[in-house]
Amino acid sequence: MTEKTWRILIIEDQADLAAAAQREITDAFDLNPAIDVDVQFETDFDAGFARVQRGESDLVVLDVRRDTPNPTTADKTAGHAVFLDIKEARFAPVIFWTALPENVDNEIMLPIVAVVKKDDIDKLPGAIEAAIASRAVDTIDDIEKQVAAVLTKHMWTELGPHWSEYTDGADSATLAQVLISRLARVLDEDREHSFTTHPSHRYVYPPASEIRSPGDILRERGQDWWVVLTPACDFEQKKFEYVLLAHAGPIEAHRKYTAWTSAKAQGKAAKGEWNELRKDVLKATQGRYQYLPAFRDIPDLVIDLENVRSVKVDVLEAMEAVASLVSPFSEALLVQHSQFRGRIGVPDLDEDLIKRRLEDSVLPGQTATGTPSVVPL
To answer: Which domain of life is it from (predicted)?
Structure first.
């Protein structure tokens, strides 16, 4: 017996087909000791959606067409309409089970959204197992529990005791912002305890706002990549005519990357080349370069803070906004750019002179290391 029983809801308006799918799925998982399922069906599309909305299912097997003697356009798309409603209501994997797969092929998002033909009823268990194996449902459950725990604690310990102060002249949206800010701070604190992150942790994908901000990653004409360097306050106050961008090129074109790959191709250990690539590019927080790890549409890129350009707003608006760097990576980029552009060269001190002066200042009876000297009796 497993710890979790997966609740599967079949929404199919023909009771005999729904019952057949129920038997197929139940029998298949009876042979799978790793997954327990509870399979139910609903023959009314609206009633089925209501059950999903109430959280009575983990996965949904969904017909597309409502079978009636004289089907209307709404009947032909009844299941797809339910799917769109589910997307608005909650996150749950959906397997379309339909004689009209071409009507929903554009919704495929494997393994979260799959399409199985009506004639291929034996493929339903496999599609369900793939959705379960993705851990999508488990992950969203864990996230909801974590978010609920943080917000509930903050409500009881801060908002509740000071309710009148927080609600004075504030609407629910303002309170939501307070809670979300608290949630973001707690999650940031948890993340900062670790010095390693997944590439996805660097990006808001796609950007959360139509207003540009520092750290926005833009694509020009589908190929050239740029990153916004103009401070956020300029965008908020609309105090700009030009926007400053830094070019981001593919890591494969960077000389330190090619030096490393060339050495590797020659059969060398390439330890020195790797250390230079790692120090000056991949982990750089100072100097000319900053690395952007590949994620989704973004390839491995290197921001070049020496290769910058100013563009007018109309040029900026023509660029595709792909993602945004999250905090603190966006702020770190601005600091790095400021330090790189504003650096001032100064002569090095004469180290030998300093060393002699420090040695001469050692107290009598001590060596330069501060250890008492041995005086013969």
So the answer is: Bacteria
